[in-house]
Amino acid sequence: MLFSPRLKPNQNCLISGHNLLVMQKLLEEGLASEFQLIYFDGPFNSGRIFSAPHPELGVDLVNPCYERETITQFNNPSIYIEEYRKRILAAKELLREEGFIVLQCNAKMGHYLKVLLDEIMGSQNYLAEVIWKVSNERTPHSFHFGYNHEVLLFYSKTEQYLKKNIATLSSLWDDVGFYETLDDENTFYPSQKPEKLMERILELTTMQGDLVGDFYCGSGSFPFTAARMRRKWIACDQNNNAIQITKNRLDKAGYKYQDCILINRFKPEWFDGTTYINKTPIPVSLLELEGLKKSTGISSPITVEAMNFSADCDLANEHGIFHFHLLVPLINSDGIDSKEWTTIPRPVPFQSDGGYRLVVPDPFKWVLYNIVHVQIDEKWREYHFSWSNLKNRVNGLLEKINNRWIEEVFYYKEHVELKDIFGYRYHLKRQKEVG
Ligand SMILES: C[S@@+](CC[C@H](N)C(=O)[O-])C[C@H]1O[C@@H](n2cnc3c(N)ncnc32)[C@H](O)[C@@H]1O
């Protein structure tokens, strides 16, 4: 496992990757006891699937691996708690002795998470349970009672005091803005938090120059506010759309940061002679494939199956010896993890006649791969899966797309990057100019 490019010391950094693995890697990189604040705003286990709406296609886009993770945890909350335990333990190691954890959650899982934090951080280091009033309205996702608050749990690593005198600050925050009043800040990413809320958390727990972390960064409200307040920051998310939205936000304001991705090194045990199978949430990259090539000296076709690919892996295909397939967990008719996998051929970028093409070997499956597969019944809190409904949605989308898979082309010195309509990026080596 490594960061590509390598993490530079003292630089703000946005990392695309699975947060537990990112935190473990940061510990390996020598960042134990370096963070002043770690802010957690993970999924609330509300059953909601993190998707990004595609404005033109009018659908919610999703990665099916994360969709499966959400469904599995919703149906079995103890998995959710155990996953949080691993991250809080890693965060504790990353924190300085004077550091803080702030964990945001809602009434559904909050009591479990507080017990977990008491256990890991020590109940003597519990500082506050702040209620943030999120809305003046009854929230659309609630039933029975109109939940309009969320909870922020403050813990210190050791017996330290908050940076500001909090004697005058109430534990009820109804003056920092609501979800419905994001106005100019709104990125339309689900669950985006107001900058004013981030500002208050940072003011209370950190000083200029301190290092802070957000490993569920979503639309980037936390790193964005940290940059404005001159804190050093490291942030990550596993969702490509989230990373893209965060980058747009930081770039627009001119904030500088290192743009990293967590990737694997080649693992010989994943290669069976004809297929290289990587089932980790870390994308397969050019670097990993170069390792494969070097250690096997292969010149015959090899199939690479993985849950995700970094864009640069297309550059390995110059000699046409790799076939790339996505490995997708199946969601059965109950919308429950079925432990079965299927493979989908990944689109292949080409340059021809001075233009660029994306050849999609199985258009039906490629659209199916990218859209939300289940619907949640708000009343009964159950997932519904309808194959006929899905088929109609895919066919409708295929008509709309009508073979126009490429949304944008970016030209770099050495390579060209194609972005497809679902936000996936593909790299192609630039051909030498003729004449
Ligand atoms: C509640 S949202 C965060 C919203 C964010 N605070 C904001 O203001 O936009 C949770 C985020 O966690 C991300 N996420 C969930 N599981 C993750 C994991 N294992 N690793 C990295 N990110 C993850 C989701 O993609 C989602 O963007």
TrEMBL record:
Gene3D superfamilies: Vaccinia Virus protein VP39. The keyword Nucleus does not apply. Keywords: Methyltransferase, Restriction system, S-adenosyl-L-methionine, Transferase. GO terms for biological process: methylation. InterPro entries: DNA_methylase_N4/N6 (IPR002941), N4/N6-MTase_EcoPI_Mod-like (IPR002295), SAM-dependent_MTases_sf (IPR029063). Pfam families: N6_N4_Mtase. It comes from the Bacteria. GO terms for molecular function: methyltransferase activity. Residues 36-247 form the DNA methylase N-4/N-6 domain. This is DNA modification methylase.
